[in-house]
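We emphasize that the prediction below concerns an isolated chain of 440 residues; any contacts that depend on oligomerization or on bound cofactors are therefore not represented. The input was used exactly as deposited, without trimming of termini.
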Amino acid sequence: MTDPIVEAIGRCNPEEPLGPGDPRWHDFDAVRGSNLHHRLSRDLRGAEARRGYCHIALASQRGCGKSTELARVSATVRNEGYLPLYTVVSEEAGSEEIGFGDVFLLMLRMLETEFRANKRLKPLPEKTVKVVADWFRDVTQSQEQEIERAIAYQGEATLGPDTPLAKLLFGLTALRKTTGTQREEIRRIVEKYADHLRDNLNHLLDDARKIAKEAYPRGLLFILDNLDRYPPDMIDNAVLKRSDLFNGVNAHMIFVVPISLLHRPPSDPVGDLYQAETLPMITVFQREDPRAVNDRAIDEVIQAIFKRVDRPLFSDLALARELARLSGGCPRDLLRLLNESLLESNERIDGRAVTRAASILRGEMTRRLTRADFKVLAGVHLDGRIDPDEAGRALLFSRAALEYNGERWVGVHPLLWDTPEFKAALEEEKRRRGGILHET
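Result of the prediction step, given as a token string:
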């Protein structure tokens, strides 16, 4: 006999993006204030009308549901005649560090693999592939033995067909995932020849477009997900400061960057470098009064909850509403709250389980925050905005502060509202502002 609680837990994995057609998917476009997949599709068509390529920096906070939205984008553009090449960068290139060279190596691997595996396409011409492979072999010859060792260690079975280019790219990526001195040496070698790296990718893309023209007449689209998992300064160095390279790629691109980079980035403004788009959190609160919920948005979140957890599993339907409120409109935090509530439940989700779930997530969040952070958050709560300094960007990156749509206002995550630290900081900030008003 199946356990409905266990089944519901299986439907609430926060790390699982939903693919097109998944019955758990819920359309939040109306309450986000953003129709992302339509906007991105129009961006691509606009670039096509200009006879150019669209390079889009999609800014988002982690956990806002962007991977699910990108899966939706991928399905939409495929139906429109594009060939989408999607990857999770932090999984394929390593989760600790990323540079522009790693991104180019990854795109080369994506392209080479797609044209070997896609039955609707012929492989890339051997002559072109050999030219690119020979270049990589020449510039990395000092690391030839290390590359061979990395391939042997990872296992050739994971490589697939043993083509010269596939083997080299696999070995270079494997070395970049290590912790030895070769890791930095490979980066130095590859990034030393930045223009050649881009030119090699474009060399393959020239043939790729011709081969794909019949099956995918509108061209190729790279979708590089999860770049927002890396520290903002790292992405600034890897992507923003190298916009000249990425804008020179002869294919459409969408890459996800941390939303904190929209707030006074170390380099030039994102919108000056790329076509900038955003995916905000679901607007479950009113900007005028952060304590007042947006009933329409809350109702949409509740409908999404019931696609994961059957209504009868709640001892009181008001508990689903409370979980929607506590999530702050962040899909990942909603799923984590649901998952923890289910783990704490016996036969049904009750008030104790919800309270316990909130306590667990609240504890994780507050342990990362300092007294100075709470002082900043108090100001955010009162003003609906955040200063674009290092502290503000860090709070956005950690999701202690959440960005919503409309006039791009920022709110404090509701899990923090009832913490002693936030209450004390808020009262102190109110007294300080009252004193200033009294003095003037």
